[in-house]
Design goal:
Distance between the termini: 70 Å
Shape: elongated
Strand order of the largest sheet: 11-12-15-16-17-18-19-20
Low-confidence stretches: 1-31
Mean pLDDT: 93
Largest sheet: 8 strands, parallel, barrel
Structural class: alpha/beta
């Protein structure tokens, strides 16, 4: 590397051919990665680099004492040192200072700031990153995605109403014994945290005032959100506390999955992307308008070489710096297939057990054709990546487009609901007993293996399960609601896909009927921990379901061939779905396992192979004791109304 001294400022010149960034050709990773080391500190000098257009008049770096307010202590012109590359080395020890870039579109901390001041307006220069070397880097052992039990959580929802929490609504709440113990008692082994990067909808200078948002409005993708820290003014605080949270969960054997939203930004004009390289990172329509596949006013252009590299480097950074174990891609259907596969490859090189899943759809038409995008139907082209199954979700609860319409749980027994439920149980793979022409939204199997399907009935989006049951089944009683809630989750947790649940469902969670609670107050979104005392049978059932799945490999075969070999659907009356996992499936210690799901309001009988069976689940109770709940013998079994029956021999 050559250097040039001008007026006391070191300018570093990098010998790297960077023309491919505009042509769209493949760029050497070392060159691409270089762009995202936007600030490199040493006690002697701090080097600033920026990917910005060649043709701009000037690019400035401003140095500030504080993260907000005050005038710049220094303003330095960057030097154009290569294709789309600007750089300057500022002599002296800048530790503790803050910086911005400015190319005439407004000040920005850059696109890859790793530490920021309050509200993320300025990048922060840290001497060292807290926790980088001291903490245990071992990950929870997850041999297969089929072994995961994913628990989706918003930081405030989970802890803000917990009386004994010292850190309600903060990262550190997940280091407290009560929180870790609840998760361990329930049995989940992966926590999916809603967006926890620095987002724009919460003002970190007013945290004493009520504010709430899910966080799907990214500002700084590679910095933890300051609103969940105890001091957003201290750049090191959010970093340290996020790492303490991860370490706490890892020690409990719980993986941490980060919800990432690369598909759009908070807005365009004020975004760090637009202020560093206008229009490069966004897609436009042929007419020249910004495309809006995200439904949020813009969509990013993942197919652009530098946007692709940004996404790759970003997930690698979260893995290497924060020890993240997986990623949930918001609106994965906005991203191109090649980028998703490149991300999978990059993470495989670090740790192939890092899990990737996402929403296999967009929220509007994209500027790329669907056959190039990470849609659910294109999952066969994305090995090692899973997608949510809206097929099983809507089969159980009813269509996403109308909260008042019920699904199979509420008595809608057309072929779509039943066949979609069967497809979900099998993990959305090809199976000789499933007719995909009758499946909700998938005309053919989308999963090559069941681990490419996320099995769920509710998540943060739309109504939670309790509210949806109340909205879609007029006059439902509390007893019925509980029975159907448990029945729904039995379908989810005995499915061959990867089970996923919304936090608080184990407490019979309600959001008071609010469909889209993304900015609703805590009174709507917070978990009601008193429900654990009011409905202890609900928590015990969820806990039992999770134990059942974890103890019996028959429910998590992981291979399409094994599912086709061992999973057999049984004849059943309308409103009932029944199947057998036969011949020691997955080397299970139980020879045959029979699961019967009855959504009707009457007892139902179904024929089973002749034999002696142990009942482990019946009428809203699960027992994994040696003798189970009871024993049955013969070639028929009876299942109670609106409940599941699980037997084995």
């Amino acid at each position: 590397m050559k250097t040039l001294l001008i007026a006391g400022i070191m300018l570093a010149l990098l010998p790297c051919n960077l023309s491919a960034h505009v042509s769209g050709e493949e760029v050497k990773p070392s060159c691409e990665s270089f762009f995202f080391d936007e600030m490199t500190y040493s006690p002697v000098e701090t080097v600033f680099k920026l990917f910005a257009p060649d043709g701009v008049k000037q690019v400035l770096v401003r140095i500030y004492k504080d993260g907000e307010g005050g005038k710049a202590q220094k303003t330095i012109k960057m030097r154009h040192v290569g294709k789309d590359l600007w750089q300057v080395a500022v002599k002296g020890d800048l530790a503790g200072r803050f910086y911005t870039f400015d190319m005439g579109k407004g000040e920005t901390p850059g696109v890859f700031a790793k530490a920021v001041g309050v509200n993320g307006k300025r990048g922060a220069i840290l001497k060292t990153f807290p926790g980088s070397k001291e903490w245990d880097k071992r990950r929870p052992v997850i041999k297969s995605p089929a072994d995961l039990v994913v628990y989706e959580m918003h930081h405030r929802d989970f802890s803000v109403a917990r009386r004994e929490s010292k850190y309600p609504g903060k990262y550190l709440a997940l280091t407290e014994p009560w929180a870790v113990q609840h998760l361990r008692d329930l049995g989940v082994n992966a926590v999916h945290i809603l967006p926890s990067y620095d987002y724009g909808s919460v003002d970190e200078t007013r945290l004493s005032q009520p504010q709430y948002n899910w966080g799907y409005d990214p500002v700084n993708y590679n910095v933890p959100e300051g609103g969940y820290s105890t001091n957003p003014y201290d750049p090191a605080c959010r970093i340290s506390e996020f790492k303490q949270m991860v370490e706490s969960l890892h020690k409990a054997g719980i993986a941490v999955i980060l919800d990432v939203v690369y598909n759009h930004t908070f807005d365009i004009d004020h975004s760090n992307f637009q202020r560093t390289y206008p229009d490069y990172y966004y897609r436009k329509t042929p007419e020249g308008y910004y495309s809006n596949g995200s439904g949020c006013g813009n969509e990013t252009a993942s197919e652009q070489p530098m946007m692709r590299r940004f996404m790759i480097e970003s997930v690698k950074y979260w893995v290497n710096e924060y020890h993240i174990d997986g990623f949930r891609f918001d609106l994965m259907g906005v991203h191109d297939i090649a980028t998703m596969n490149a991300i999978r490859k990059a993470l495989d090189e670090i740790d192939p057990t890092i899990f990737i899943y996402g929403e296999g759809w967009s929220a509007g038409g994209c500027a790329l054709p669907n056959n190039q995008l990470g849609m659910k139907a294109n999952i066969p082209q994305m090995p090692g990546i899973a997608a949510f199954s809206d097929d099983i979700r809507d089969a159980l609860r009813g269509p996403f487009s109308d909260d008042t319409k019920c699904g199979w749980l509420g008595g809608s027994y057309n072929n779509k609901e039943t066949e979609s439920l069967k497809a979900g149980i099998a993990g959305m793979i090809a199976h000789p007993q499933i007719d995909y022409s009758k499946v909700n939204y998938s005309s053919k199997p989308y999963a090559m293996d069941p681990t490419q399907m996320m099995s769920y009935v509710s998540c943060h989006d739309d109504m939670c399960l309790v509210d949806r049951l109340r909205a879609s089944i007029p006059g439902i009683t509390d007893e019925e609601l509980i029975r159907l809630d448990l029945l729904a989750q039995t379908a989810v947790f005995t499915s061959q896909g990867v089970p996923f649940m919304l936090s608080g469902e184990e407490l019979l969670r309600s959001k008071k009927g609010v469909h889209n609670s993304y900015e609703s107050p805590d009174s709507i979104n917070q978990l009601d921990w008193q429900n654990k005392l009011r409905y202890p049978q609900v928590f015990q059932y969820y806990k039992g379901l999770i134990q059942l799945r974890k103890q019996h490999p028959a429910f998590r075969l992981g291979s399409a061939d094994l599912v086709r070999k061992h999973l057999e659907f049984l004849d059943a009356p309308e409103g009932v779905v029944a199947y057998r996992l036969k011949n020691f499936a997955g080397r299970d210690r139980w020879r045959d396992i029979i699961v019967v799901l009855n959504s009707t309001r009457q007892e139902q009988q179904i024929a089973v192979p002749e034999g002696k069976y142990t009942v482990v689940c019946a009428n809203g109770v699960i027992s994994l004791a040696y003798r189970g709940i009871s024993a049955v013998e013969g070639n028929t079994v009876t299942v109670s109304p609106q409940s599941a029956l699980i037997i084995h021999n």
